[in-house]
Amino acid sequence: MSVQERVDDAVNVLVTIVEAGGAIVIGAGALYAFGRLLWLAARDRTTASFVLVRLDLGRFLALGLEFQLAGDILRTAVSPSFNEIGQLAAIATIRTALNWTLRREIEEERRQLTAGQHDRPAGP
């Protein structure tokens, strides 16, 4: 086995680990947020409490997207073709735009919570 093949194999293992980490972060965040949502729906039905769940979920999603982007970058780190570079650029653009949107929404929700705009009861 050549050195290039060994490096490729090592990078593929790293990509798998990093992408699995991202999936675990997103999955754990979704489960955590769902559990909190059920708990809050049973005891505290204010809009502010649900917004906090959204903020937590948004943070998990943003972190998971960062891991996924890291995996994409690792995948193209070893002798990438022009096609792979183009795909990475497209994926990085989409994931960065998603992450930027999530962060903007998180900051807006946080600002509204601080201003006390989410204090009314949720639901009908």
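The above is record 1. Record 2 follows with the same two-line structure.
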Amino acid sequence: MLPSNPIIEQALIPQPEVCKAIGQTRSGLDKLRKKDPTFPKPVKFSDSRQAAAYYVIAEVNAWLKAKIAASRNEAA
């Protein structure tokens, strides 16, 4: 899980850090985004396809919590 602090929660995290946090490669993250519409959308500061992608920490944490909760409910 990513850092939990009210100020940090609204911060942006670069895509490589998101990949590390969820244990995916960049291509794995791309596949996950296409397969799971609930995954947070990236924030880009340019219209360029190569623009760096950032994610809101709070959104990624909420997605992770939902996935963990869903997996716990399925296992029960």
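DSSP finds four helices and three strands in the chain.
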